[in-house]
């Protein structure tokens, strides 16, 4: 498969560049700028994209464009720092600057070129230094008020430099510019589609596994579900997929997961009812980290004993996705083969040795979802909001009991149903902005307050509603849900859920709060 290598010079947007290229149906991988040449060339790139970065090309030890990139004769697109490094390497001049140009700019095309058409274009700038004199052979192809060399290129050599950031949404035509570079300039056939991803994954899984036995833990989350479905496509009955019902899932979820696998995908899940085991282990525990520890430990015990019942296995499926890989990409990618398995769904056996099968290792979340839909998962499952491994235990503040879980589940279901009805239960990026909630749930508080129902005094627990918008879950803002909707949800909860007489809405952002309450 034709591919693009993206060298990361320390840009906060490097993953976005990769996502835009993938959205153009072109495979690409992201490497640290100083990755081993052999590692980068292994993907047989048909072109390079050099990302932005915080350094100045004249700073001591500033990252340089590796020699093999310039010697390859392949097309190069430098973005921001990447453009400045390219200019510097090829003998042009970069002007240091103390002031950053940050924000929108209008770019005017001055010479015909294969990437940006004639006319004016809105672009997003974020740079300090800028190119003063392009290298010999380069021409200014477009400029903006503050960047006389906003876009430069040596068209015959297929070398280009963009001062602005095409990868961010603030550059509305940016994705198109990147697509033209990878498809028209590099000549790549855009064949990276969910169908081709599935076919390639199947081959890779078969190669890796041979006739070995494979075990998987399904949590109901998108990643583990899609990973398991791909492995099943590849090796069928050599796979045993275990679903542990820990009693901490949301209303209807156990049934939804089992029936999605059985009916839509024809995969027989080995369901383990471990509800009593988890609840017994959680008895009297109120401290959040202790809850997590106990749940992780119980999961391992249950999974291990099931694995033994099933006669063991050589391989374990894990739903690692590309952003996890990029973040831990410390140069040595070969290390990941035979390692002890630890945390994913809720902790995995420490002392069992499995080789990991990671079919989503090179996929972004949106690609995992697209593959999921193509494999036949229902939409609600593919677009499901993230759900923490310890489940409702960390949303049931205080003691986790069967009754309190039932109360929480009922309230949570009302919130979710009303949000779904209002079209706000999934996050959608649209032309007019982002709509919906990235995560929304109910929290049962271990606090009782006085209320009045009919003529009766009540003294019952409270529910907090939490709904946030976020892109990365590292920071988040509380969702500005319509008051009418909040009123309806609160009303329904106090009327329909036994033991709850008060509903509050959490209006803290993260930081200083976190998304979950525990
Ligand atoms: P916080 O509460 O830290 O949550 O703002 C950020 C994201 O992580 C999820 N989360 C967890 N996921 N195990 C998980 O698998 C956990 O123990 C856990 N705690 C928080 C949370 O739901 C949110 O998406």
Characterization of the model:
There is one protein chain. A 9-stranded mixed β-sheet has the order 2-1-3-4-11-10-9-6-7, sandwiched between helices. The protein has a 5-stranded parallel β-sheet with strand order 14-13-12-15-16, sandwiched between helices. Strands 19, 20, 21 and 22 form a 4-stranded mixed β-sheet that branches. The protein contains 15 helices and 22 strands. It folds into 3 domains: 3-185, Class I glutamine amidotransferase (GATase) domain (Rossmann fold), CATH 3.40.50.880; 194-382, Rossmann fold (3-Layer(aba) Sandwich), CATH 3.40.50; 395-505, GMP Synthetase, Chain A, domain 3. The protein has helices spanning 14-23, 37-41, 67-71, 81-89, 174-185, 194-209, 222-235, 253-265, 275-282, 288-309, 322-327, 365-375, 379-382, 402-421, 483-496, and strands at residues 3-8, 27-32, 45-50, 76-79, 93-95, 101-109, 120-127, 130-133, 139-144, 151-154, 159-162, 214-218, 239-245, 269-273, 315-317, 355-357, 428-430, 433-435, 439-453, 456-469, 477-478, 500-505. α1 crosses α5, α6 (194-209) crosses α7 and α7 (222-235) crosses α12. The radius of gyration is 26 Å and the shape is globular. The chain has 518 residues and is α/β, with parallel strands linked by helices. It binds xanthosine-5'-monophosphate. Xanthosine-5'-monophosphate binds at residues 292, 386, 388-390, 439, 473, 510, 514-516. The site of xanthosine-5'-monophosphate has 11 residues, from loops.
């Amino acid at each position: 498969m034709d591919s693009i290598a993206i060298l990361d010079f320390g840009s906060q947007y490097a993953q976005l560049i990769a996502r835009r290229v993938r959205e153009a149906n072109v495979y690409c991988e992201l490497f640290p700028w100083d990755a081993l040449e052999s590692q980068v060339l292994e993907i047989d790139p048909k072109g390079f994209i050099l990302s932005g970065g915080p350094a100045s090309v004249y700073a001591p030890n500033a990252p340089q464009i590796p020699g093999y990139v310039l010697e390859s004769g392949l097309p190069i697109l430098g973005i921001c720092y990447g453009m400045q490094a390219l200019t510097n390497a090829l003998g042009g001049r970069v002007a240091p600057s103390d002031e950053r140009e940050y924000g929108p700019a209008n770019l005017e095309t001055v010479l015909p070129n294969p990437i940006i058409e004639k006319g004016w274009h809105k672009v997003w700038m974020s740079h300090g230094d800028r190119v003063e004199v392009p290298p010999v052979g380069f021409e200014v192809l477009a400029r903006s008020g503050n960047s006389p060399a906003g876009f430069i290129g040596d068209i015959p050599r297929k070398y280009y430099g963009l001062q602005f950031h095409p990868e961010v949404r603030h550059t509305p035509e940016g994705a198109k510019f990147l697509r033209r570079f990878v498809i028209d300039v590099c000549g790549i056939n855009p064949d990276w589609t969910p169908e081709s991803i599935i076919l390639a994954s199947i081959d890779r899984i078969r190669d890796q596994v041979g006739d070995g036995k494979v075990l998987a833990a399904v949590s109901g989350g998108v990643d583990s579900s899609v990973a398991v479905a791909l492995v099943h496509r590849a090796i069928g009955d050599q796979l045993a997929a275990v679903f542990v019902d820990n009693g901490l899932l949301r209303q209807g979820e156990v049934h939804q997961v089992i029936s999605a696998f059985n009916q839509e995908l024809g995969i027989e899940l080995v369901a383990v009812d471990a509800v009593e085991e988890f609840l017994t282990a959680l008895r009297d525990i109120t401290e959040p980290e202790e809850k997590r520890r106990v749940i992780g430990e119980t999961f391992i015990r249950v999974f291990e004993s099931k694995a033994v019942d099933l006669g063991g296995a050589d391989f374990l499926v894990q739903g690692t996705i590309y952003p996890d890989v990029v973040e831990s990409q410390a140069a040595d990618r070969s290390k990941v083969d035979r390692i002890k398995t630890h945390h994913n769904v809720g902790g995995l056996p420490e002392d069992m040795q499995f080789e990991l099968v990671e079919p989503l290792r090179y996929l972004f979340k949106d690609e995992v979802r697209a593959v999921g839909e193509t494999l036949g998962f229902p939409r609600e499952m593919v677009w499901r909001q993230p759900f923490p491994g310890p489940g409702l235990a960390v949303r049931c503040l205080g003691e986790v009991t069967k009754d309190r879980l039932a109360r929480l589940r009922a309230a949570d279901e009302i919130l979710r149903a009303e949000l779904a009805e209002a079209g706000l239960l999934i996050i959608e990026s649209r032309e007019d902005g982002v709509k919906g909630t990235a995560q929304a749930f109910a929290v049962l508080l271990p606090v009782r307050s006085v209320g009045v129902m009919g003529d009766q005094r009540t003294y019952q627990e409270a529910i907090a509603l939490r709904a946030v918008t976020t892109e990365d879950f590292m920071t988040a803002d509380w969702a500005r849900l319509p008051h009418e909707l909040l009123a309806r949800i609160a009303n329904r909860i106090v009327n329909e859920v036994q033991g709850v007489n008060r509903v509050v809405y959490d209006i803290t952002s993260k930081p200083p709060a976190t998304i979950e309450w525990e």
